[in-house]
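**Fold tokens**
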Amino acid sequence: MPRHAAHALALALAGLPLAAQSPQPTPPTTAGVLAATTAADWRPLDAENTLVMEVAGGSVVIELSAAFAPGHAANVRALVREGFFDGLTVNRVQDNYVVQWGDGEEDEAKSRVPKVGKAALPAEFDRPAAGLPFTPNPDGDVYAPEAGWSGGFPAARDPKTGRAWMIHCYGVLGAGRGNTADSGGGAQLFVVTGHSPRHLDRNITAFGRVMKGIEHLTSLPRGTGPLGFYEKAEQRVPIRRVRMVADLPEAERPKLEVLRTDTDSFRALIEARRHRHEEWFLDPVGKVEVCNVPLPVREAKPAR
């Protein structure tokens, strides 16, 4: 190439916009963030605090949080290990709200009485925030001074009172109770299967979430009685058995991993959900509500 031509080309290239010289980074998406995670970004389920409930449709895997409600987590472990839930039933399926299970017997004289676990405990609606890892949602919250995530669970906290609590997002587990705070304990359990009923926060002990198999609860027939309770005993859905993962043979244990919520990868996921760069979105939104950030769970990858 002649010298003058080469010089002209160099000048032309120097005048090109930066974007034409080097491609801009692709804006993050949920799929992209998850694809870029490393093994250190994930943790296995806590086998000692994870239960598997078998119903007609399949298995529901639920991880308990001893950090938020140690008394309730311990009591549910005791109830599971004594076989308390085996043969009991799902008694309530309220559309866009909750699925609840336990003893559906209305006659207290015929109700199943726990042998080792307890029917009721003092409430654990919240706990001290000190020492609890917390990744805040940058967009704030309506129901709490701060909302975010802790240990793989949706959570909130109040810096003024120094208290923290789990919040009622989709899939969260709670202990059913009567009118008094100490009338629950884990013998009656429910899972949020609809919109996020945040008005329940700090009114019920929330202490876990479904990690796999929630479709076996959300697909159940809706109850026709008040609050979605089944009106006839034959409508109730039998619980075949419930076992703690730690008590299962290795071959039967669910091999699942949860994305840690204290990592840069999770913070990148939050940003990807705040600013939607997927092709479908015409308005990238720019904000996100705490319950609209997914808490990913995946099958564990075999060790190499």
